[in-house]
Design a protein that fits this description.
Elements lengths: L1 H12 L31 E2 L8 E3 L2 E5 L4 E12 L2 E11 L4 E12 L2 E11 L5 E10 L3 E12 L2 E10 L8 E11 L2 E6 L2 E4 L2 E5 L2 E6 L6 E10 L3 E13 L2 E10 L3 E13 L2 E12 L4 E14 L4 E12 L10 H5 L2 E12 L4 E12 L7 E16 L6 E15 L2 E15 L2 E4 L2 E18 L13 E30 L2 E17 L4 H4 L14 E17 L5 E16 H4 L16 E10 L2 E10 L4 E12 L4 E10 L11 E12 L3 E10 L4 E12 L3 E10 L3 E9 L12 H9 L21
Protein name: LPS-assembly protein LptD
Organism: Tectimicrobiota bacterium
Pfam family, one: LptD
């Protein structure tokens, strides 16, 4: 009964369907190749004109010149134009070019493939008649009929037949009719069809108009239905507009019974293989909160291969009159605190190992951060990557930038400009194979146009606490990178596709020194980013790194090297802190930093493991740990669990306690049923931040999905329904939540209290 109601909705509410797919770059239309003069194909005999595209072959082929006919018996195969007929027997009249074939008929034209008992055709016409026909139109739509007429290319008429997109002798759904017409990439018009479910009639219609689309086509997408305690009943129809071969759009709205109508749209384009973009927008005049909510996002990318350059723009604008996250279904959108607009042109000079960038970045606060602004307009960078100086053993590197800043914070606006230069020279030395040493020396020269009036002013000075006057900072730095000693051992053996195992253990050390220069001027700097916060430094970072490697047998033959795991134990020693003589009565020396235990492992493509622990040796306690594991069983199952925990400290070093557990998993219950579960827990507050269950049934030709979501501020339920080739929406993978877990490398690719699963090593890998 439920399926019959859904079918009625399809027939009356959405007679058109859209095959939702991204646009493609415009390409020249292909042309069918013409046979070359005098061309012959082995096993084929051309009819009349030897340059014609019609040919016939058979186990026994005879030509009756008196009756002007060609007869083929036993696996007869005839090809004419873009069509092909295979049969046990075929007869073609040489004069009229009419033909008939019988016995195990197979007719093919493009993606159409029909079988039958008898076929009548003409070599110079698109018209074909097939008896007892059954097969596929467009590779998707399955039809049967006592009689099928091909009236023109992609145009058919069927008498006493059925229509479905399902497989099997008893399809899940279908239509039975007396007469119908089909236009591939157009519509099917069924006269008086009976709606059948599993072969049982459940309803009758005077007429039905259904889409027969195999490519992107204009039409309605599957609507989404839902209900929630915050937004009320929700109905989300959408219309897909295939504008042309290189662009399309989706227009629709969300009807929220308690809040109003949220209009939304998206436009996509691919102008060429190097240029593509997207424009998204939404608007809601909220009758519940008496405010406006709108978003506008523009994403554009153009590559210039000839000049090794690119232009990338992402415009992000939004307005929230009140703080309300219940309107957002996406986790990342719910937790974000600002918009982020970036526009950048990049030019690479490969021969000079140089990169030039010019652009801007603007971040505006949302919700709790409303009224805040951080902007770089413009930002110009010229970087020279580490490269050899001439034929010498020395390497050069340059980091340089010009930036115009603006920051609005706590109703205080600051504008200034900065120039930063950081050239350096290094000399890699490989004395022995197991030991590498690289000394480096560099200079940091920075200029600002605005400074504090004195060193006692805070980091957000008012107009009265700052002045426009050039401020400069000169610093030099030196470092010594030691990679080694390193030792390795190979263990021969084989475990499944893995052959031989290698263990490498090594010591990695970095000594970095930058003296306390311009200390008085540095106190006048208004800190806006990490360049402004550079301080004198005298540290030694050391690590013991274990790597476990193996050789993996490839399907095409041979082996590839794979890192099974990396386990590192590292710590930083602050020489300046060890020599400190001030404030010893109130704060003891603590030159040793956290002991970091870092594990990254991917023994197979299905398993990923990440772990970090920060141990405070003075308190003899763990201050922070983060663990994550991702198991990927393909279409059958997946599991992702991660946890972040930190200890609360009310004395130096201060930290805020937190404990988050995130879990998402999915399993296929047989071939058709899929279930996913997602939850986020805040253990400090003993609260569940979010729970979500997705239950989906997907057969070969139709599907239904039920989504239940419960967050702190709302509870919702949504239903999606689809019919293959008839009523479809944006196609999703087997498991919806696994996509972002896999792509982003962390739980849902979110932020905030989510455990990071991409850890930056303190030393180069």
């Amino acid at each position: 009964m439920l399926f019959a109601l859904a079918m009625a909705l399809v027939l009356y509410a959405a007679p058109a369907a859209a095959q939702f797919a991204p646009p493609s770059a415009p390409l020249p239309q292909p042309r069918s190749p013409l046979p070359r003069e005098g061309e012959r194909k082995e096993g084929l005999r051309f009819l009349q004109d030897p340059t014609a595209a019609a040919a016939i072959s058979a186990d026994q082929l005879t030509e009756d010149r008196e009756r002007q006919r060609v007869v083929g018996r036993g696996f007869a195969d005839i090809r004419f134009g873009d069509k092909r007929i295979q049969a046990d027997f075929v007869e073609v009249q040489s004069g009229t070019r009419d033909g008939v074939a019988t016995g195990n008929i197979v007719f093919q034209a493009g993606n159409d493939r029909i079988v039958g008992t008898r076929i009548e055709f003409n070599l110079d016409s698109e018209r074909v008649v097939i008896y007892d026909a059954r097969g596929y139109l467009g590779g998707t739509y399955y039809i049967t009929g006592d009689l099928l007429r091909r009236l023109a290319q992609d145009h058919y008429e069927v008498v006493d037949g059925t229509f479905t997109t399902c497989e099997g002798d008893r399809p899940d759904w279908g239509f039975r009719f007396k007469r119908s017409t089909f236009r591939v990439e157009g519509y099917a018009i069924l006269d008086g069809p009976a709606v059948e479910v599993a072969g049982v009639p459940v309803g009758y219609l005077p007429v039905a108009v259904l889409p027969v689309k195999t490519r992107r086509a204009t039409g309605f997408l599957v609507p989404q239905f839902g209900a929630g305690n915050r937004n009320g009943f929700e109905f989300s129809p959408a219309f897909f507009w295939a504008i042309n071969e290189w662009s399309d759009a989706t227009l629709g709205f969300d009807y929220l019974s308690k809040r109003g109508i949220r209009y939304k749209g998206e436009y996509r384009y691919i102008l060429s293989g190097n240029t593509r973009g997207r424009v998204q927008g939404s608007f809601l005049r909220d009758k519940l909160e008496k405010g406006q909510f709108w978003d506008l996002k523009v994403d554009h990318l153009t590559l210039f291969p000839e000049t090794a350059s690119s232009f990338n723009a992402f415009i992000d604008l939004a307005r929230r009159d009140v703080i309300d996250r219940s309107l957002e279904r996406d986790l990342v959108e719910r937790v974000r605190q600002n918009t982020d607009t970036t526009i950048q042109y990049t030019r690479n000079f490969p021969r000079a190992d140089t990169q030039f960038k010019v652009g801007m970045r603007r971040q505006e606060g949302l919700d709790e951060s409303d009224g805040q602004l951080f902007q770089k307009l413009p930002e110009v960078r010229l970087d020279i990557f580490s490269s050899r100086i001439g034929t010498s053993d020395f390497y050069k590197e340059l980091i340089s930038s010009y930036t115009a800043f603006r920051r609005d914070l706590n109703r205080n606006s600051i504008e200034l400009q900065r120039v930063h230069l950081e050239p350096s020279v290094s000399l890699p030395l490989q004395t022995v194979p197991w030991l590498g040493v690289t000394p480096e020396f560099g200079i940091r020269e920075t200029f600002w146009t605005v400074q504090k009036i004195n060193s006692s002013v805070g980091s957000n000075p008012t107009d009265a606490e700052r002045r426009e006057e050039i401020l400069s900072r000169e610093m030099w730095f030196a470092s010594l990178n030691v990679l080694g000693p390193r030792f390795s051992r190979v263990y021969e053996g084989r475990v499944g596709p893995l052959q031989d195992f290698k263990h490498i253990i090594g010591l990695e050390t970095v000594y970095f020194y930058s003296p306390a220069m311009d200390s008085e001027d540095r106190r006048l700097i208004i800190p806006l980013d990490e360049v402004d916060s550079l301080q004198d430094q005298n540290t030694i970072t050391y690590a013991i790194v274990n790597r476990f490697l193996t050789k993996l047998e490839k399907e095409e033959g041979g082996f590839e090297t794979r890192q099974l795991a990396r386990i590192a134990l590292s710590q930083t020693f602050d020489v300046a802190e060890a020599r400190r003589t001030q404030d010893l009565e109130t704060r003891e020396r603590r030159p040793f930093g956290f002991i970091l235990f870092d594990v990254t492992s991917r023994p197979t493509r299905q398993i990923r493991l990440f772990h970090q622990t920060f141990y405070n040796q003075y308190e003899q306690e763990i201050d922070l740990h983060s663990t994550g594991i991702l198991l990927d069983g393909g279409r059958n199952w997946f599991l992702n669990v991660d946890r972040t925990w930190s200890r609360q400290r009310n004395e130096f070093p201060f930290s805020t306690g937190q404990s988050f557990i995130n879990f998402t998993g999915g399993v296929a219950l047989g071939r058709r049923w899929f279930i996913e579960y997602l939850t986020r827990l805040n253990k400090v507050e003993r609260a569940t931040l979010e729970q979500s269950i997705i239950l989906r049934y997907q057969s070969c030709c139709w599907g239904v999905a039920l989504t239940l979501t419960d967050t702190r501020d709302k509870s919702e339920i949504f239903v999606n329904f689809s019919l293959l080739g008839i009523l479809e929406g944006e196609r999703v993978p087997t498991f919806k939540t696994r996509r972002t877990v896999t792509d982003e490398g962390r739980f849902l690719g979110g932020s905030g209290g989510l455990a990071p699963m991409r850890f930056q090593s303190p030393l180069p890998p």
